[in-house]
Request: fold
Amino acid sequence: MSHSSRSLFGKLLSTSSARTLLCALSLLILSPSIAMAEPSGKGLSIWFDVGGPVGGPYATVVQNGAKQAAEDLNVDLRVVYSDWQPQKMVENFKHALAAKPSGIVVMGHPSDSAYQPLIEEAYRSNILVTSVDTPLPNTMVTNQSRGFGYVGVSNSDRGVLLANEALARSQLKAGDRALVWGIKDIAERSDSTRGLISTLESAGLKVDFIQISPETDKDPSIGTAAITAYLASHYDTKLILVDHGALTAQMGNFLRNAGVRPGELYVGGFSLSPATADAIRTGYVQLVGDSQPYLMGYLSVVQLVLTKRYGFSGLDINTGAGFVSRDNIELIAPLAAKGLR
Reply:
């Protein structure tokens, strides 16, 4: 294993579940008593649906993590894209089944009901499956003993946590107007948006909602019209929470085009990128919930290799524990520029 790999492993030993996974891998690969002549992933192939479009900031970080794990373990990795469309994710899964890889990594957006028959077919064909970003709770119950794991966040928890953090930092009060720009129609993926709305409403805020259209989901650059039109008719808005990493990254551009000055609104969202870091530095975005998608890519590949080689059951790893703001952006921004955060 390379020096860079060992350094990465050290950085990951921050949660008990991650520690369990990584210690198991270290013991089985690095211990002199059971040293192997070949990397543990040699001969294995994995299809990985990274969710977004080619070049999308969030999907790219997931992909970077998956590629690094594949390089470290000598796995043959095939990356596919789905433009955040659940039906395309299902179609990608069907194509992966036909290719008969060793394992498949999915994003859970299509829901248990859409995936379960296909996942059962995969296991009957001796193809392992695990998930990232959005959980598949019923599939986890049924298949965790066979290696189905989850790396990511609880979507409902991440919405609640971001909303509460924004309320605490912004010092808004009951009666203030807030906008939630999110997704309500994609199974468990929408739990995050629902958590944002319910938390703000419980605090007494007047909450408006804009549904992210499929077109904007695929190409966030076209989101300017939605924000500009909303703010033109809602001058009293004080808070905007965005349930989409790529749209969070564009908020600086959107607000400039709408004539909003830095710091005039309190804006929060999810996921990091160089553009998001710039929006934080310039005062257009105040708070970002970091779900650390690099870990989703890296650890899900590790999960499949461990299960395939050594029969480990699936692990449930929560990657979304922190927030990024002006207080710590200078530490995180260089990592975002490298596609690590």
